[in-house]
Amino acid sequence: MVVWSLLAAQCVCAQRADGAAAGTENAGAPVPTPESFTTFRPSARSRVIVVEDAGATEAFKPRAERVADMLARGLTALTGKPTAREAWLSLVSTQDVVGVRVYSVPGPDAGTRPAVAAAIVRGLLDAGVPATQIVIWDKSERDLRDGGFMALARELGVRVAGSAEAGYDAEHFYEQPLIGTLVWGDLEFGQSGEGVGRRSFVSKLLTRELTRIINVPPLQNHRLAGVAGNLYGLAMASVDNTQRFEREAARLAQAVPEIYALPEVGDRVVLNIVDALLCQYEGGPRGLLHYSTVLNQLRLSRDPVALDVLSLRELERQRRAARAPFVKPNLELYRNAELLELGVSDPDRIDVETLP
User: What is the pLDDT of residues 275-317, one digit of tens each?
Assistant: First the structure.
């Protein structure tokens, strides 16, 4: 078990700068470590690929063939590989168990669109990853079903899993003095005693099954995190006892980066893809299309922080255009993430390449 702390970040950063793969010896599931599959480590600058296609949606609905083409173009541009198959195999191996993490709470129109997840899964299948080793997942099976992912998994012959239903691993957790109100499904629910409620345990789905994660959030606002993006979405989907962080922006600003930095969580991530076909700038996590703008974009990067920061800027741009109320972004969360070397939070150090 490893507990990350912002207070220890400078020490951790120094270790990573020396080339140490922090915490991988504690991961519960075997992680292949060929040179081409090394975990993302941020440099002075980060790179984001934005793929645009004006015909990617029609009446707010994705056009599957156009989305698949956008994904292939973005992948080859990001990895520098000549084909989508080679691009996928530079990120995962055919021995990996690959988790496609979606954000299903808002439903199929405002959450991660099934068409985007389908393009990813088909790309992995074409690259030779067996269907039995591909898992579409989020925290709740109910949300996955309502979001259309159960039906998609049946169609493609892959697995679907809720990290909560998979249960939680008592050996891998994030600990903070803040005591939470435990709910049914949390590992320590119904227990009493000193220290109960101070830990958030990592799902067994991550510690015992998945070896690689492709993180696929939508571009949707979040009241406290700013955006329900790569950092917030993956962190909150990976552990239990999260309600204690959801009441104040300052709590999320500390907890989200530290949970993401757990080796069982962030070290599994090989690619982040923001589903920016639509941008919902108000009302999240509910799906409200009347607060949405069609962007017809996919945004790809190895850097989750850079993508989230760009999403914050896009949300503010859309709010201004709609004359919606100003929302103060939770920039501290993303600064803390950079302190933990999860990515780059300064927009001036993010190189954006747009593929029209």
Answer: 999 999 999 999 999 999 999 999 999 999 999 999 999 999 9
Tell me the C-alpha distance between 311 and 295, whole Å: 12
Distances (CA, A) of 96 to 128, 154, 299: 11, 21, 24
Q: How far apart are CA 202 and CA 199, in angstroms?
A: 10
Bridge partners, 215 (sequence order): 101, 272
With H, G, I as helix, E, B as strand and everything else as coil, classify residue 329: coil
pLDDT tens-digit readout, 323-355: 999 989 999 999 999 999 999 999 999 999 999
222 has pLDDT over 60: yes
- The parent domain of residue 203 ranges over 36-355
Return the number of other C-beta atoms located less than 10 Å from residue 61's C-beta: 12
Asked if the structure places residue 237 within a domain, the reply is yes
pLDDT range class, residue 172, cuts 50, 70, 90: very high
Take residue 169 and report the two structure tokens written for it: 């691993």
pLDDT at 150 exceeding the cut of 60: yes
3-state SS track over 262-275: CCCCHHHEEEEEEE
Pair 168, 240: CB distance under 8 Å: yes
**3-state SS assignment for residue 201:** strand
pLDDT band at 356 (very low <50, low <70, confident <90, very high): confident
Task: Say if 28 falls within a structural domain.
Answer: no
Instruction: Determine contact, residues 163/137, Cβ cutoff 8 Å.
Output: yes
Number of domains in the chain: 1
Nearest Cα residue to 198 out of 247, 248, 232, 239? 239
> Cα separation of 329 and 226, whole Å?
5
| Omega cis (within 30) before 34 | no
